[in-house]
Design goal:
This protein has helices at about 30-45, 50-60, 75-80, 90-100, 105-110, 115-120. It is an all-alpha fold and about 130 residues long. The longest helix is centred in the N-terminal third of the chain and has 17 residues, at about 30-45.
């Protein structure tokens, strides 16, 4: 799965995946960086990148139902093996960090302590809110 989506496979004649290009004809740098970390984690723990990607997805909170796609029985078996995998907190942290989405404005603006202080009239720290803002 992820072997088609890495820096080495881009433009070197290897089989291109159906998701290999964006509108500009290349896969995004962000997607390549994510695939690179998935591959690194897979190599470190002796699993396939597909297994790591699916185990990482399954480790996320909420109701998540992965949709796997394979052309070969061996690919399906490889993908299904993810149910027996638990990634370490360190691996999850690396994967989450590389894939984190920058929220931009207004989120970044509202995370600024000075802006938050002005917005809440200096009372933000007095608010008992279990949904932390930072």
């Amino acid at each position: 799965m992820l072997g088609k989506y890495n820096r080495q496979s881009q433009g070197n004649g290897q089989e291109q995946g159906r998701l290999s290009t964006t509108g500009e004809g290349t896969i995004s740098e962000r997607a390549l960086a994510i695939a690179e970390v998935v591959t690194q984690v897979a190599q470190e723990i002796g699993l396939s990148p597909s297994q790591v990607a699916l185990a990482w997805l399954r480790a996320q909170s909420g109701v998540i139902i992965p949709i796997i796609g394979a052309r070969k029985v061996s690919q399906i078996k490889d993908n299904l093996a993810c149910v027996d995998i638990t990634l370490s907190p360190e691996h999850l942290q690396r994967l989450n960090e590389v894939s984190q989405i920058e929220l931009g404005f207004p989120h970044d603006f509202l995370q600024n302590d000075v802006m938050r202080d002005r917005l809440f009239g200096g009372t933000f720290n007095l608010i008992d809110n279990h949904h932390a803002y930072g």
